[in-house]
Amino acid sequence: MNFELSDEMCNQIIFAMEDQEKGFVFDSVNCLPVEKKTIQNFDSDRYHSLPVWGSAHGFRLMERFVSLLRNPLAREELRSVLFVGRGVFRNFKNVLKRYPEIERLWFSFKEKEMKNEIYKWYNLLREAQGLKKIGDVPEEIDEALPAYFSFCSVKTEKEQKKLEECIVRIEKELSGRFQGEVGNAIVAFWRTMRLMCLSQSDMTLYVESIGKDFAAAITAVPCPPNSTQTVMVTSFFVLPEFRGLGLGKELVKRSIDWLKKAGVRHIIMPSFAIPDSFIPALLRSGFTQNCGNFIADIYS
Question: Cβ distance 110 to 18 under 8 Å?
Fold first, then answer.
């Protein structure tokens, strides 16, 4: 049992593990899974049982994925289908199809988890023959991968219109988060900030998914208007269906690099629309909290 566990080989083993109808074993001579019923002379030194994998293992894998998922909308929908009884696997897939980026995250997570089972199986076989173990596959769930998104600056009227449509969605969310007149006041303040962008030259970096949907954006304007080294963030958001994928942190990081190239030194970010859960990410990015706002000296 001394062969390389290549990606292709692991994918073949995963396919065999998930096949609930045919019984596969691993041929250590040809290094591939084969149906047990096709073997005429079974040699236990050559043929080895694959890692056990059934519907119960698949269900626990889905439970683990949901428990680690940070997107609240998708997490609650997926959690609800886990306990409906019949059709769990089909319903789980149907929900994921409404969240393409999270669906890709699921496939990546599932592949890693199953590869980890394969590595454990392979190490047990190696250990039985006195061979040294190989390393395990990392078990952590990945955050959403910049490769699935593009980061662009707003340049066209169409892009500006899509951005404004997203802003309206965030206004409604803010209004619902803060009830009554407080909610109205927060939205009014948000709109005042947006008018600053419309009245002077702004700098907007937005995130677009593979499906060409707006996912997140950050907009800043010189503050005061004639400033060359200081900007104020007038809007910063990640749409609900894309939250929990690491986009906010990546957007802040890229906007800092982008603004630095433009000669900006100080960034001021009002805190009224910043979720408490995102504050640690801002502080790690170099911002300090002062008088209720966040300020970064990106040259320090």
Answer: no
Q: What is the pLDDT of residues 129-173, one digit of tens each?
A: 888 887 765 444 455 455 678 888 877 888 888 888 888 888 888
Between 186 and 123, the higher pLDDT residue: 123
Cα separation, 221 vs 5, whole angstroms: 52
Cα 250-73-116 angle, rounded to 5 deg: 65
Closest to 106 (Cα-Cα) out of 44, 155, 62, 153: 62
Cβ-based neighbours of 21, under 8 Å, separated by 6 or more: none
CA–chain centroid gap for 36, Å, is 39
- Three-state SS at 43: coil
pLDDT at 207 over 80: yes
What token pair was written down for 167? 């802003």
The Cα 155–Cα 205 span in angstroms is: 10
Provide CB contacts within 8 A for 276, sequence distance 6+. none
Specify the DSSP element, H or E, that contains 278: none
Task: Report d(CA 268, CA 298) in Å as an integer.
Answer: 11
Q: How far is CA 39 from CA 26, 118, 165, in A?
A: 11, 22, 62
The whole-model pTM stands at 0.67
d(CA 222, CA 226): 7
CA–CA separation, 19 and 55 (whole Å): 11
